[in-house]
Structure formats: structure tokens, C-alpha cells
Amino acid sequence: MKIMFESFFHSVGNFSKKHRRAILTFWIVLFIVMLPFAEQFFNDTSYNISNSIITKNSMAYHANSLLESQFNGSDPNELIIVANNTNIDNLSVNQEMINLENALKSYMEKQNIGFINITSIITTENETLLSFSNGIYSEENSTYNLMLKLHNETLSLLGDARSILKLEFGLPLEYISIFERTHNNTITYEYISKNLTGFPLLYLNYFSGYWNSTIKNVNETNIISIMNNAINSTVKSKNFQDMVNNPLMISLAKNYTLYEYYKYPENINTSLPEFSAMYISNGIEENKNITYFIKNDLCTSPYKIAYESLNVSAPVKFNLINRMVSLIYNSSMKVFKNDPFIKINNESYRWYLYSLYNTSGNNLGKFVYGSSGILKNYAYNDYPVLPSSYIKSSLLGYNNSTLLFIINYKGNLTASNINGINKITSKYSSMVPGSKYYLAGNTVADSQLGTEVINGLVIALLIGISISIVIVGIYFRSPVAAFIPLLIFILAAVITAGISGILYKYVFHASISFITPTLLMILLLGISSDYTVYILSRYRSELRDKNNDASQETAKWAGLAVFTSGTTVAISYIVLWLSKIPLFSDDGLTNAMGALIAITIANTFLIAFISSLGKKTYWPSKFENKRKLPFERSMTHISEFTLKNKKKLIAIFIIATVAGLYIYSVTPTNMDVFSLLPPSSGIQSLVVVNDSFHYDLFDPSYIIVKFPSPILSNGKYNITEYREVSNIEKRLLESKYVHSVLGIGYPFGSYVNYSFLNGNSRYVKEYINQTNTYIGKNPRYAEIIIYLSNIAWSDQSTNFVKEIPAIAGDGNNYKAYVGGLTEYLNDAYSFTASSFENMVPILAVSVFIILLLQIASAFTPVRLILMVMASVIVSLALTYGIFYYAIHLPIIIFLPLFVFITLLAVGLDYDIFMVTKAREGVIKGLSNDEAIKQSIIQNGGVIITLGSLLFVTFGSLYFSGIGIMQEIGIGLALGVLIDTFISWPFFVPSIMLYLDKYNWWPSKIGRDKK
């Protein structure tokens, strides 16, 4: 019987043999051409996990787009150093942290990376204290000069007041005294005036005139009152005022009476300082600038500062400084109480004010940061002025033992730069016992992950290749054959990587996920070895049988099996690529290309290569006609055992499948990618910061709220929209999983009432500016930043973020979009789980069609697919048992997805090899039972070898050190192990034997055989 596919591959084998030199030359030239593009493939790999897991058209994707367009939400170039166990409340530790920052700054300034600055609690404190000291010294100096001036003015005024009082009330009293004796105004006037001239005489003339017009007779009883009226009439007289121009005299008359001066002179003497202070303060209030300074900066009244300035004892300068310091100390407590950027340290602020004033304003930089300055000689908790909790909470941990040093730069950070920084931190780890330093930031995290992934790939490949060479060498008993799979792998790997590099750089204009190179190389190593060994095994059999058309016959049967297997692999991975699964869709395309290239190389280059070598392929092995195949005796026993116990084996198969299905269904999966990455500095720093700061500082979630009308228009906030956002923020803060929020209602982390922004408080401008940063370029958008109490990828955070849409709600007049790493993970999980459910049936149907066309059977493909799925379920159950129940690691959703896709394709290899061999036997005239038994015996050795190769290859991923790779590698390895040593030799033939002639339905192959 001549079958179409067998004929085609026979022709391919014949062509490859005849044109072997041209074919070998073609592949070698293609290999050389693709080498630089293969290198580009690895160089263009993206190690940014956050960007890699964003699923398009998801809520997080839209939120991220709005963040970038409305709020300039792009990550700056920054490297973050996390210093842990470095309590800067300890003076010596604080000094070392200052030295560390100086060392980092000095190093970065010498590097050609566009260094900008370093931001830390130290630089912030330095800038804060320097700026503050400039302002406060100016205030101290102004206050002291003002108080000294007021002291002199008030003291002078006090003397003047006493002199004027003596004239203003003393002269009238003397007049009354004479009058009481003479009872004659003329005599009294003449007596008093004889010694007076100038102003006193003028004053006498005025008040005596008023007195004369009032006194009627000498029996008047209220003589003091009458004289007091005369005094008041005098000082109020416009003519007198014009002539005298003495406001003090008028003021004294308003505040004191003749009776008080006569009866209680000691009271007047006591109250005169208060009067003088009040008089001076009235003059001060006429100067708006000084009044503003006194009331707003010194938080006192002109009267109080005048009175304080007057009542100082000797030495005046010393006591005046004390009073000035006390005044500024008290005013600072009030002025900076609501400052969003700084807070006053009550314990040390007073001595700081004295020390600052003693500098005379000279070299404040040295005063703050010099060798004898504040920063270098006091611990953090002794600093007089500290950053506010809003500033501190992003730079310094709760117990002041974890510091962040944020290095900002414009260029590209190299591995050499990172090593240089590591050397600096290593030096200080010995200077501060127990301290640990971690490098964080996207650049560092990407670099570290890239190094670990490449190292892991190299280790996995070295292990896989080494053991594969040994296995193949032992199987064929030939060092030549041992290295042929490696040759095919190298060809396939370089060419696939090269084509992928061209596609992604010049066609897709994108980077590939960090997962892709490792999984591609491991898959290619596995299938290249499998396809090569299967073809070599068949070729050896044909040579042993002295077949003159050995290479053509090998291509006809083994080439067809390899093509069928490789096609199913390619179809499986194309489905993965089309599904756009985060992290893994790139791998779908590259693996599909790799499988197609591998089967093409196997059916052309390999056939041409072994045709050229002939028997030398297996040197120094000898070919003996009657020599048994490897494992033939064992396979004979297995086939006989399977023939006798097919029903029992089917029962065991069903029980194992049901048990595996139960474990698979009850074990939870998630998107905790980061827990499965190596404990690099970048990952550890996230955990350390979360523990020390009590929230996830690096990966906050956020909400973008969209309104139909603007939140801010014409410089005014629309109260409806403002309150909507503020209410969302309040609801978020009710959750224990939220540490803090930043947004319109909480611009500095604390609630700000709408009315405050419309008031005239000192800090309204700062609050308005900060509030406006949470309003988009289009004022219909508002941003709410949510700092989670737990690390972004924890179960607590992922579960809470799922609830955020319900908490935010979609009001009648707004729409909320949730973004951030946690939402990326949630969206990626939902998308992957949904895609997984859709992919499996699509994949099964695709594989079914391929097998239907090539095997010409409708029933066998269904049986193959179901059995492979059963093997996958059992292998996943075992993998879950190892990682989730024994090691207690999370099960990433990608594990079942990738294992299903890979094993549904690769796991079919051995079944396909068995089926095609059995089908070959039936076509050649054997009964189904004989053909199946022969297939087990003849394929047993090679399939055990192939399974061992694939098991070792996939299992080598465990040594990559990448948790996600380890889970996938073990899942694949166990699947191959089960399929090779349990399913293939026992379960598959049992069901084939039980089905008998229906294996080939609806084909008529074997219908006449028993």
C-alpha cells in the first residue's frame, strides 16, 4: 500500500541523499549568517517583569496609558540602594551613612552616565536644614534688631512719659495747691508763672484759662475733677496741639487722670512701661511690613514684642537674645505645625537657635554640613529640624534603621557601574556591624535578573547537554553518534534565535520576554535530541538490515514520525503565541519556529549528514544481523505483561487520572512571579523595604478617575468632583490592607478639607500645588495613589486590589480605572486562566486534525490526546505535591498552561512513534496485536532513550535557580517520565489492544487482520 505522506518523505530522503553536499552547505551558510542575529536575540531580551505582564485592553493597561498621558507616569532612571540595620539615631552609624553617601556621589560623578544627584534622608536633611537656617537666621537677626530698637525706643519713651507726666499733672497740682491757699486765680497764676518759660508757660496759660472759666467760687468741692477737665480740654485743643504737636501728652491724658497722679502715683509709675509698650506698638502698626512680620512670622502682637523688648534686665544684650530665641522658638512651634515638608524637633530646637545666631550668618553651609556641623556631629533624632512624615516615609523606615539612597542619572547604567557601587556598599557593611545593603530599581533588577537568567540557562544547558551526550553515546555505543544531537541542536538554536531576532527587532519592533530564550533553548535541546536519536535509531536498524535505501527508508518512516511530532509541537506553540499570554506568548512563536526548523533540519541536514557518514555514524560499533535491539528483552517482557493485563492496566490508569485530577483541581494557582525569582538584591530589597516601612513603597497601586466635567476650572475646584475623589480615598483608607493614599483629598498623606484650599492659611499655596499634581493635563482626570500594607504580589494585596473597583465604584458621573503592579498581576492571571480554558480545546482540535491527516485515523488521535492529557494531569498533581504541599511555594498559573501546551505536543512524540510503527506493521501485514507488540519491542529502547533525554533536558531547568523555570522544568520532566516509563509501555498499548481494529477507524487498515 502506497500512502501519500510516506511517499513524500521517501522522496525527501532521496533528495537529501542525492544533494547532500548542497544541503549541508546551505544549512552551514544559514547558520553563519544567523549568528549575529542570534546574539541580537539575546541582547534584545526584556527583563522588566512589570512591563512584560501587562495584558492589552485590560483595565490596568488603560490605567497605565492614562497615567503616562495625563500624569507623565514614566519611571525615571534611578538606582536605589537600600541600607538595612543602619540606625541613624546612633551617631557613629549616622556618620558612616553620611560617608557612604559622599563615597557614592564621588564615584557616580566620575562615571559617564549623566549623573544628576543622590536623594536620601541625609541630602534631604542637609537641604532642609541649610535652607531653613538661612531663613531662620534672617528672622533671628531681624527679630533681635527689632527688639533692640524697640527696647531703646520704649525706654526713651518711658523717660519722656515720666517727664511729661510731671509737667502735665504736676504743674496743675502745684497750681491747685497755691489756689487752695490764696483762693485767687490771679495770685496763683502770677506765683506759678514767674519761673516758667516756653512750653510749660504755654501749657499753664491754656489749662489755667480752662480752669478760670470753670471755677466759680472757692467752695468748689470737686477741684481735682475740674482741673482734670481743664487738662483734657487743653490737650484736646486744636490750637494747643498745633502749637505743641506732642501726641504723647495727649495719649497720657487719655490713659491717666489727675486724681490717679495725685492719689496713686506708685500705680502710674508701675503701669508706665505697659503704656510705653502700647504707645510704641501703635506706632508699629502703622508700618504694614513690620506688623506682618510680627504677627505672621513671630506669631505675636506689636504690643507684646514691645513690652518684652522693654522689660529686660542687664546685661541687656544677653537677655535680649534669650527673649528673641524664646520668641522664635514659640512662633516656630505654631508656624511650622502644618508645614507639609518639615517638622520641628522640640528637644533640640532651642539650642539650635542659639547656635545659629552665634554664627552671625557666616558660612551656614559649614554650620550645617561641616566637620563640626550639625549633620556630622549629631544623630538623626537630635537634628533640630527634620523632614515631615510625608517626606521621611519615602526615604527612611519606621525605626530609622532602613535608609534609601536614590541615585538619579540620565544615561545607561552598566554592569561595571553596579559592581563599583557594590564594592562601596561592601566596604561600609564592615564599618557598620550587621548592616546589609541591597541594590534596587528597574535597571538593577533587570540587570540582576538578566545575569541570573543567563547563568541559569548556561547551567541548565551544560547539564542537559552533558548528560544527553552520555545517554546517546551509551545507547549507540558510539562517540560519533553521541555528538550528532548536539550538532543538530546548535544548528536549530542559532538559526531559530537568528530568525526570531530579525522578526522582533525589524518586524515587531519589540523585545522578547526573559522567559523565552531559556525555554526555547531547552525545548530545542530536547526535541532536537529526540528527533535526531529517533532518526539515528531507525537508520541504524536499516543499516543493520543491509537496506541499500537506508536513508530513504529512514526518512519515509522516522522522518514522517518526526514531522508529525514537530508539527503538533509547532501548532501547540502557535496557539500559545496567538493567545497573547503575558510572559509566554513570545515563547510560543519562537518555540513554534524552533520546532519547524528542528524537523526541517532533521529531515534534510541530518539525512544528508548520516548519508555522507554511513556506518561511520556509529563508529566504532559493529553491525550484526542477529544482534538484539537495546532493551529488546525487557520490552518483550513488558509487551507480554501488557497483553495479559490490559484490563487491569486500564483500571489503574483511570484511578491514577482521577486522583491526579482531584489534586489538580483543589490546588490554587496564582501570579506570584516574584516569589519564584531568585532572591536577588532587587527582590530582597522590596521585601526589606516593605518590612521596614510597613508598606510597599516601590509598587503602589493607583486609580485614575475620569469625570465628564473638569475637577479644576478657572483656578477653582469643582466641589462635586473634589468630594467624589475624596470619598473614594476615605473608603480605601478604611481597609487594613491600605497603608496610606495620596490624592486630591490627601495631597501630603493626610486629609485636607476642601475649605482649607479656599482659605488664606500660610501653606495653602503648597497644598494647592500638591493637590494639582493629582489632576491630569485634562482636568477631567484625577489620580489616587494607593500604598498597600503588604508587598504588591502578596495574596493580601492581590485579593484587596480585586476589590478596589467595587470600593471606587462607577458613580453616575465618573469612571474608575485601577492600575499598578498588583492589578497587572490580577489582570494577567484572569487573562491567562481564561485563555487557558479556551486554548486547550483549540489545541486539542488542532492536534487532532494534524494526526487525522497523517495517521488516517479519527479514533486514535482522540485517544492519544486524552491519554496525554491524563499524563499531564498526573504530572501536574505530582509537581503540585512537590512545590506547593512539600516546599510550600506558590504555583504559578503559567505552570499548568505551559506544561499542558508542551506535553500535549512533545508528550505525543512517543505515542506517535508507537502508533506510526504499529501502523507500519499493520500496513506490512501484521495483526494489530502483533504490530503493537512489535512496536513496543522495536521502539522500546529508543523511546526509553528519548524519554530519558527529554527528562534530563527538562529536568535540567531545576538547576537554573529560577523558581518559575524550576516549576515548569519539573512539571515537564515528570510528564515525560510518566509518559516514557508508565503511560507509553503500559497504558497506551493496553487501550490500543483493547480497541483492536478501531485504532485505525475509519481507515480499512488491518480490517482483515486479527
Give a description of the structure.
The chain has 1010 residues and is α+β, with helices and mostly antiparallel strands. It contains 39 helices and 14 strands. The strands form five sheets. It has a four-stranded antiparallel sheet with strand order 3-6-2-7, with helices on both faces. A four-stranded antiparallel sheet has the order 12-13-9-14, with helices on both faces. Strands 1-8 form a two-stranded parallel ribbon. The protein starts with a helix and ends in a 15-residue tail after the last helix.
- Secondary-structure-based class equals alpha+beta
Please give the share of residues in helix. 55-70%
The number of helices is 39
Our estimate of the beta-strand percent is 5-15%
What is the CA-atom radius of gyration, in angstroms? 46 Å
Backbone shape: rod-shaped
Main β-sheet description: 4 strands, antiparallel
The count of β-strands is 14
Strand order of the largest sheet: 3-6-2-7
Mean pLDDT: 88
Uncertain regions: pLDDT < 50 for 5+ in a row? none
How far the N terminus sits from the C terminus, by CA atoms, comes to 19 Å
